[in-house]
Amino acid sequence: MLFLAAPVSVSSKHPFAEALVWDAQPAADELAALDAECFEPALSPAVYRDWQKFPYLTCWVLRAEISAQAVGWAVCQRIEQEGELLRLGVRPALRGKGWGRVLLLGVLERLRAAGARRITLEVRAGNAAAQALYRAAGFRETSRRRGYYANPPEDAVLMAWEGSSRP
Q1: Of 92, 89, 107, whose CA–CA distance to 31 is shortest?
Q2: pLDDT tens digit string along 34-81?
């Protein structure tokens, strides 16, 4: 199922200066390929296939409407009024152009519309760009998990967005 994204203001010279769509039924192989572009270690197609079986998990790919080229993707779960952002990534060549914000705000909008009043996530302590993106959207640090990540060893910063936060 494809959902039209909210209008996005971009330069006509931008590679995705066309309408955007939210693909809610992306292939597991595509999700894993996008994951491999952004994360180490990447999740396998099998993990994405398993995730797609759960009714409380949603995988989205944000695409340029005409070319159908993926800009980024997100994986979320929502159980009752709590949402969790499990994965969010923008293709490396498109970073720094505002697509992370478009993707994150679209995910927040969809989770809120589905009834989420609190949304959590975790992010590497050294990923300052992602933390800044989340803070700008209204997320606040709630705690840390010391030594949570491996390769390289790093803390996880846990963040939460509350229903009263406005991006």
Answers
A1: 89
A2: 999 999 889 999 999 999 999 999 999 999 876 788 999 999 999 999
Superfamily covering domain 2-162: Gcn5-related N-acetyltransferase (GNAT) (3.40.630.30)
Boundaries of every domain in the chain = 2-162
What is the pTM for the complete model shown?
0.84
Q: Rounded to an integer, what distance in angstroms lies between the CA atom of residue 49 and that of residue 54?
A: 10
Q: Any idea what DSSP says for residue 80? A: T
Amino acid letter, 35: D
SS3 assignment, position 88: strand
Determine how many CB atoms are found less than 10 A away from the CB of residue 123. Answer: 22
Q: How is residue 156 written in tokens?
A: 């996880």
Q: What Å distances lie between residue 14 and 17, 46, 67, 89, 93, CA to CA?
A: 5, 34, 13, 19, 12
